Amino acid sequence: MTMSTAPAPATTVAVQARDVVRTYGRGDAAVRALDGVTVSVPAGRFTAIMGPSGSGKSTLMHALAGLDTVDAGQILLGGTDLGRLTERQRTLLRRDRIGFVFQAFNLVPTLTARENIVLPLTLAGRRPDAEHLAHLLATLGLTDRSRHRPGELSGGQQQRVAVARALVTRPEIVFADEPTGNLDSQAAETLLGFLRQAVDELGQTIVMVTHDPHAAAYADRVVFLADGRIDGELDAPTVPAILSHMARLTAPAATGGN
Amino acid sequence: MWRLTLRTTLARRARLALTLLAVVLGVTFATGSLILTDTSGRLLDDQFRTATAGVDLTVRDAVAFDSAMGVEVTRDPLPANLPERIAAVPGVAAVRPQVRGQGLLEVDGTAVVPSGPSVLASWVPPPLGAFTVRSGRPPAADDEVVIDEDTARAHRIGLGDTVTVRATDTGRLRVVGLAGFGARGGLPNSTIALVTLPSAQRLLRLGSTVSEVAVVAAPGVAPDELRDRISVALGAGYEVTPSRDIAAAGAAAARDQLSWLQLVLLALAAAALLVGAFLIANTFSIVITQRTRELALLRAAGATGGQVLRSVLGEALLVGLAASTVGLGLGVAAATGIRNLAGAFGVPLPEGGLVLTARTVLVAFAVGVVVTVGSAVGPARRAVAVAPVAALRDAAAARTGRLRVIAGALAAAAGLAATTAVLAAGAPVPLLGVAALGAVGGLALLGPAITPILVRLVGRPLAAAGVTGRLANESAARTPRRTAATALALALGLALISFMAVLGTSVKSSVRQSYAEVITADHVVESARNEMLGGLSPMVYDRVSRLPEVAVASRLRYGHWRDGEATQALTAVDPATLPRVASLHFTAGNLAALDGGGIVLAEHVARDRGLAVGDELPMTFSRAGTRSLPVVGLLRDGDARALSTDYLISLDTFARLYSEEMDASVLIRTAEGTGRAAAERAIKAALAETPTAQLRDQAAAVAGRTQMIDQVLGLVTVLLMLAVLIALLGITNTLALSITERTAEIGLLRAVGMTRRQLRWMIRGEAVLVAALASVLGILLGVGFAAATVRALGRDAPTVLAVPAGRLLLVLAVALAAGLLAGLLPARRAARLDVLAAIGTP
C-alpha cells in the first residue's frame, strides 16, 4: 500500500440525521418507517446499521444517501442540508460525493468492468485518474478482469467491481446495502476485508446496512434500529455482542407495538 | 385457463394498448380501402343504372368493343330515319332518339371546366330520360337549356341566366330549368347541359342523325325477344343492347379507371399490416420474455405446455378481435379520409354514402385476428419452451439460431439472384417483386445477427457524443432481435417511400429528356384537362395553322385498339409536317411510308413481337374491326415515348379507322422573324374560343404527361406515411417495454448519478438510433430496387436513374425527427421512475 494512512479525527461528522421521520402510505395504512431518528456517522470510520426486517434500516440508508426524501427532520451531509436540494442537485450530489454498493444488480450489463467502475466519472464528463484507477483495480484484484462484462464475472468479482466504482470518485461517504447478501461466505469475507482496508488505508467513510452479525463485526461501530427508532449502539463490535444485542431487540419488538 | 388468459390480457392493457394500436391501424387501412372501392363501385353502378332506368333497350351503332382504358369509344351516329324503323317493329311501345356529346359550359365569359366530362345531351323526359327537372321547366325552344343543379349552385347560375355552350358549334342559351339525376343534383365531377334534340344536333353538327335510340317494350313483350326482333328488322351494323348491360358496361368502364387505385390501396394496406405484424410479434415476444417467471410459475404449478401455448395465443386472439372491431369502425372514417385525400391529389372518386359489405367485415376480422395470432405463434412457442426452473433464473439472452441465419442468407441470395436474372438475363420485370420479397424476408431473418454490427456502425456519432449515447447503442445492440424487428418495420415503410420517389423521379426525368430531345416545336397546344385521348377540339388546329405567325402546325391524335385481351394506345401523326416539329430517328423504314396506311413500331415492340418492316400487325379497332397493318418503319424507343405511344399511324389512316374527332397535341413552329412573345400572343388569341386549350412550353407539356406520376406519387407517399406512423408506434412500444425490462438498470444508473436529463437523452438516443438504422436500411433497399427497376424498364425505353437526393434527405430527416418523437414518451416514463422502487425491482 502506497496510500498514506489518514485516520480522520473521530469528532468529524460525515453525515447526520436529526429527528428524521419517513412515512409510507396514508391513513390507516400509514407506516412510520423512520420515527424520529437522530444519528451521526463519524468520518473515516466504518459504521454498520443493523436491525430486524422492517426496522427501517434500508430507509435510513436511502435517506442518508439522498436517494429518498424525508417527511420531517434534517439530513446533513458534510454541512449540506439534503432537504433543501432539488432532485437534480441530489442526483449530482450522489454522483460526485457518494459511492454506492447494492446487494444485487450493481452493474450495467452492457458495460465492461472498467466502464462500470468509471461510470460516475463518465456521467459527470470527467476523466478518471489513471493512477487511482489502476490502484483500485490492483487492490481489488480486478486488473485482468477490467475488460470483462458483468456476465463474465463471478458474483464476488461483480461486487468488487461495485466497490471499485463506489470508491473511484473519492467520495465523502460510501453506502453499502447488504453488499454480501448474495455472496458465499468466502467471497463475503474478501469483500468485507476490502471495505475494512478502504477505511483503514484510505480513511474512507463507509456506512453498511446488514442483518449479518459477521458482516457487522467488520465495522468500527454498529447502530441498531428497531421500529424506525435508534435502539442502541455498539463500539468495536464482536459477533457475540451483536447477537446478544439483537436478541434483546427482537424480543420486545415481537410482542410490543403501540 | 381462459379466465386466466382474460385476466392477464386485461391486467396488461397498458402494455397491449400500443400493440392493439398497430393492429387497429392496419385493419383500419385495409377496411378503409375496401369500403372505399366498394362504395365507388356501388355509386358508379347506381349512376349508370339510373341513367338507363326507364329504358328497356338501346340501339346504337355496332362496335367491336365498348370502351378502352375506361374511356367509352365514340360511335358513328345513326341515320335520321332509324327511330321510325324501330317504332315500326311490333312490340315497341315507345322510341326516343337521343343525341349525346361534349359541350363546355361558359358562364359570364368564364369556362366551367370540371375534372370529368362536360356533357351535352338532348332532353328526354322521364321515365325514358334519366334527368328530372327540379325547378323551372324542360327546354322547349332551340335557344333554351337545362343544366344540372350542382353546377348551377357551384357557379351561381339561376333561371333566366344566359350561358354559352361550346361544342363543335357554339350557342348562347337561356337557362329555363335545373335538373337532377336520380336523388342527386347532377353527375360527379361533370357539368350537364340538356337542350332540345334539334339544338343538340346543331351544336354537335350531327345534321339530322342521332347518337342512340332508346326503346321501351310494350307491356307483355319480353325485352330479350324484342331485341331479337329489332336486330332482325334493322340488319347488321346496329347494336341492340339491354339497358342493364349498358349500365353494367358503363359502370365497369368507370370502375376500370379506378382499379389502379384499388390495387395501390390494397398493396399499401398489405404493407401496413406487414409492418403491424412485425410489431405485434415483437410486442408479444417482449411481453413473454418479461413473463418468463410468471409462465414458469404456471408450469411449475402444473400447467401443461399446451395450456401455456393456448393462454398466449388466446391473449393474441383477444387482442386481434378487439383491434379488428375498432379498426373496422375507424375504417369507415378512413374511407372518407382517403377519398378526400385522393381528391386533393387530383384523383376524384364518386361521393356518396359508404358501403360496408359482409366481405369487408370478414376481411377485417380475418386480417386482424390472423395477423395477430400468427405473429404471436413464434413467441408463444418460445413461452412453452420455458422450463419450470427458470422461475429462479434470469432468462438468458436468446442467440440467433444457425438455421435462421442460413434461411436468411438463402432468402437474401434468392433476392439477389432474381434481381440479377432481371437485370442481366432479361427476365420479366415483375420478378423484381419476388426479389424484393426475398430481400425483405432475408433481412427479417438475418436481422438479429447483423443488427449489433449495424447498430455500432450507424450509432458511431451517437457513441462519440458521450456515455449516454454509448449506453443507448449498447442497449439497442443487446436485444438484436427486438431492435431488428422494430427497425425493419420502419425500414419497410421508408423503403417503399424511397422506391416510389426514385422510380417516379427517374421516369419523369426520362420522359422529360426524351421529350426535350425529340420535340423541336416552339410551342405546344394541349388540353388543360389532360384527358386520356387528348380532348382538344379540332378547331384549335384549324385556327392555329392559319395564323401568319405560325410556319408549321402538326397535330397528334391518340386512339385505343385491342391487342387480344389487352388494350393498347396508338398515336396518329401527319407524316408531312411532323418532321419539322420533331426530330425522329428511324432504325428501319421512314415516316413518309405511313402514307400508305401502314404502322411504325417502337423498336422494343418490334423486338418483343418479332416483327420487321414488311410484316403485318393484326389490330382490332372499335369501329373498323380487326385489320392487319403493314409495318413500314421502326422508331427509336425514346422517340416513341416522346410521342406518347409505341405505335404510329398517319392521320389519314386514323380517319379511316376511328370516328373520334379530337386532337391530343398541336405542335407549332413559328414563322421566321416572328418573336416568341408575338407568336404567343397570336396563338393565345386564336385559342380564345376554346377555353380548355392551353398554350404550353416544353416544361408544361412534360408536366401534363407526368401528372399521373405526380398524383400517384403524392397519394402513395401520404398513405405510406401511415405505415411509417405504425412503425414509429413500434419504436415507442418497444422502448416502453424495454424500459420496463431495464427498470433495475435504470435505477442503478440514476443512483450512481445519471441525471434525469441524461437518462431522457439515453432513451431518445436509442429511439433515434433505431430510426437511423431503419432509414439506412430502408433508403438503401428502396433506392436499390428502384435502380434495378429503372434498369429493367430501360429495356423498353431509355430510362435513366434519377435519385432525388433532396427528397431522400428529407425522408431521412423526417424519419430521424420522428424517431426522436417516438422516444419522447418512453424517455419521460423512464425519467419518472422512482429511483428506490427501480433499484428494488428484481
Automatic annotation (TrEMBL), chain A:
GO molecular function, one term: ATP hydrolysis activity
GO CC list: membrane protein complex; plasma membrane
Domain ABC transporter: 15-252
Statement: the UniProt record of this protein carries the keyword Transport: yes
Residue runs in coiled coils: none
Domain of life: Bacteria
Database matches in Gene3D superfamilies: P-loop containing nucleotide triphosphate hydrolases (3.40.50.300)
Pfam families assigned: ABC_tran (PF00005)
Keyword list, A-Z: ATP-binding, Nucleotide-binding, Transport
Keyword ATP-binding applies: yes
InterPro entries: AAA+_ATPase (IPR003593), ABC_transporter-like_ATP-bd (IPR003439), ABC_transporter-like_CS (IPR017871), ABC_transpr_LolD-like (IPR015854), MacB-like_ATP-bd (IPR017911), P-loop_NTPase (IPR027417)
Protein name, UniProt field: Putative ABC transport system ATP-binding protein
From TrEMBL, chain B:
One Gene Ontology CC term in the entry: plasma membrane
Residue intervals passing through the bilayer: 260-289, 316-338, 358-377, 403-425, 431-455, 484-504, 712-732, 767-788, 808-827
Ribonucleoprotein keyword on record: no
Top-level lineage group: Bacteria
Signal peptide: none
Any one Gene Ontology molecular-function term assigned to this protein's record: transmembrane transporter activity
This protein's UniProt keywords: Cell membrane, Membrane, Transmembrane, Transmembrane helix
Residue stretches making up the ABC3 transporter permease C-terminal domain: 268-384, 718-834
InterPro entries per record: ABC3_permease_C, MacB_PCD, Macrolide_Exporter_MacB
Family: Belongs to the ABC-4 integral membrane protein family.
Name of the featured protein: Putative ABC transport system permease protein
Species whose genome carries this gene: Micromonospora chaiyaphumensis
Record lineage: Bacteria, Bacillati, Actinomycetota, Actinomycetes, Micromonosporales
